[in-house]
Structures are given as C-alpha cells and as structure tokens.
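Field log, afternoon session.

UNIT: design team B
ACTIVITY: writing a sequence onto a fixed backbone
BACKBONE:
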C-alpha cells in the first residue's frame, strides 16, 4: 500500500463523538498517522508483527497498522466511548483489532514484552504536566520498539527520561492540525509542530 492510499483510508475514519479535554482527546491527523505507520512499515516493524496502539482513542493507528499487515493488533484506552468508535472504524476498514479497556499506567493490564512494536499518540501534557511519561514507561515495557508522536522540541526531554533504558534512533517532523474542539479554543484551527520519535529499548533492559 502506498503512503497516499493509506492516508486516504485513514481520512475516512470517525473521530471522537464527545472528546474529553482532560484526556487531551484530539483525533490523530491521517497525514501524521500514515507517515508514522509508513515509516515503521518501511523498517520492518509492522508486517506480521504484534502491534499495540497505546492510548488508541478511536483506533486510527491500530487500524492503519492492521491495513499494513500487522497481526495481531491491539489497542488500549480508558474511554469506552472512544473504543466503541474504534470498533466501528475497524469494521469500516474490514480489519481485525483487539480493543482493551484499561488505563495506561502502573496498573495497566499488559504483560511485559507482549508486543513487537508500540505505536502511540500520547498526551502532550497541555492539561496535565508529564502526562506522556506513563505512556513511555508502558510502551517500553510492552515492546522493544516504539514509534510515538510528540510535541516538537520534546526530544531532549524524552532522551533524558529514557536514559539507561532506551534511545531515540530516528526522528521525523510533521504538523498536527487541531480544529476548534473545546469551548476554551479561540481559533478555528491550530497547527502544532510535532516529531515522530523512534525509540529502541536497550538490549540489556
């Protein structure tokens, strides 16, 4: 599948019906999701790999990974409403995704090394500082390879946080378009620079 075809398929998916600001529920733009997945697939991290979409929301990354041949694919999120939309999106693309309702954090239900690759769009920390840390911790426990979308400029923080456990081996830039979603938004849309980071766990961890 070509990048443009993957992006077109993801553009058809439904977003959050009732987004929650505390969870920073913004739909992952199809362009950014497709770029992350296509990059990961080109490195052999998707096809026939066990892939987890951590904090999957409406399942954009999970569904895209399944389209690119990942199997099995799972998504975990704490919002049952979002998981319902993710289930509809998987049906719309005729892909198989196992959806798990659970919180990302110390008590998450995942077993260590139960996946080959994690893809994620963690919270940027606009509502709760360091909200992405539990996602990074959980991702590195669940799989040796992680592809995540972070605020542009986050790389130094992430490098310090994962020091001794993992390292960033690649970074790709992009833009995350957020339309007016919540009452406190003043503009119709905002383009936020982001970077897709590839994080590889140290072999001894």
């Amino acid at each position: 599948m070509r990048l443009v075809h993957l992006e077109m398929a993801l553009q058809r998916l439904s977003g959050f019906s009732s987004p929650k600001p505390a969870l920073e529920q913004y739909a992952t733009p199809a362009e950014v999701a497709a770029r992350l997945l296509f990059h990961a697939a080109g490195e052999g991290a998707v096809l026939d790999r066990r892939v987890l979409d951590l904090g999957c929301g409406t399942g954009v990354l999970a569904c895209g990974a399944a389209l690119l041949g990942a199997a099995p694919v799972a998504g975990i999120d704490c919002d049952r409403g979002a998981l319902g939309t993710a289930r509809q999106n998987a049906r719309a693309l005729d892909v198989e995704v196992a959806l798990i309702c659970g919180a990302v954090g110390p008590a998450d239900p995942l077993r260590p090394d139960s996946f080959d690759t994690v893809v994620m769009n963690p919270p940027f920390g606009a509502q709760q500082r360091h909200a992405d840390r539990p996602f990074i911790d959980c991702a590195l426990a669940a799989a040796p390879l992680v592809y995540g979308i972070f605020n542009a400029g986050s790389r130094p923080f992430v490098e310090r946080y994962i020091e001794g456990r993992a390292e960033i081996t690649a970074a790709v830039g992009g833009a995350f378009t957020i339309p007016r979603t919540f009452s406190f938004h003043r503009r119709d849309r905002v383009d936020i620079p982001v970077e897709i980071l590839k994080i590889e766990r140290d072999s001894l961890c």
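LOG NOTE: The first helix runs from residue 3 to 11.
NEXT ACTIVITY: expression trials, pending approval
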